[in-house]
Amino acid sequence: MRKLTYFIACSIDGFIGDPDGDASAMLPFVDAEYFEFLKAEYPETMPTHGRRPLGIDDLPNKRFDTIIQGRASYDLALKEGVTSPYAHMRQYVASRTLAESPDPEVEIIAEDLVGRVRELKAEDSAFDVYLCGGSRLAGELIDEIDELVIKSYPIVLGSGMPMFGSGFAVGEFTLGSVRTFGNGAVVRTYSRKR
Ligand SMILES: NC(=O)c1ccc[n+]([C@@H]2O[C@H](COP(=O)([O-])OP(=O)(O)OC[C@H]3O[C@@H](n4cnc5c(N)ncnc54)[C@H](OP(=O)(O)O)[C@@H]3O)[C@@H](O)[C@H]2O)c1
């Protein structure tokens, strides 16, 4: 069984963006040291159209070969005219409103989201499944998440879009690794206690 990993950027107080989800306040923390880390350990989490200008679009995937994101997160790419933002992975977008996929490389999941994710996790692959977000999708899939990779940046937002758009429930995780960066960013990994 492979893992569903929620790989997510957030503030110290656990918000993944402003109240509308805009995460641009976090971008300044992607400095040289941090970028080298992403390049070395999670290159596939950078969108294809962002990798190309940096000349790193041929980096092999390290952790994930499949990505799932919510329609609102996918919309950000569509607004830039990009229909296949993670061309180096198999791409799934959860949506009940997108009647058909804007791109043959992107499969829409309209029904039985949890069942489809369980099928993806049951596939035989050395790579895990990257849950990209956003908040609502992560909330829907919270019980399916096996691993968290939380990239927290040294900012407090006070309010904003929560990491999970779900109700109250205590879920227990075990701390794996903690990596700190000169600019105050901290990347923690956790695995779910089953
Ligand atoms: N900080 C970070 O690392 C990070 C990462 C990713 C995203 N974000 C931010 O997150 C924001 C978007 O988050 P969000 O919570 O508003 O939306 P979202 O989770 O990206 O997408 C929500 C949409 O997903 C679809 N969906 C959710 N559950 C579903 C189900 N069970 N079956 C079928 N479709 C389902 C629905 O689409 P339809 O309405 O089409 O039915 C729903 O409106 C963006 O602004 C982005 O910037 C931040």
From TrEMBL:
Residues covered by the Bacterial bifunctional deaminase-reductase C-terminal domain: 2-186
Pfam families documented for this protein: RibD_C
A GO BP entry: riboflavin biosynthetic process
Record GO terms (molecular function): 5-amino-6-(5-phosphoribosylamino)uracil reductase activity
PANTHER family given in the database record: 2,5-DIAMINO-6-RIBOSYLAMINO-4(3H)-PYRIMIDINONE 5'-PHOSPHATE REDUCTASE, DIHYDROFOLATE REDUCTASE FAMILY PROTEIN (AFU_ORTHOLOGUE AFUA_8G06820)
Name by which UniProt lists this protein: Deaminase
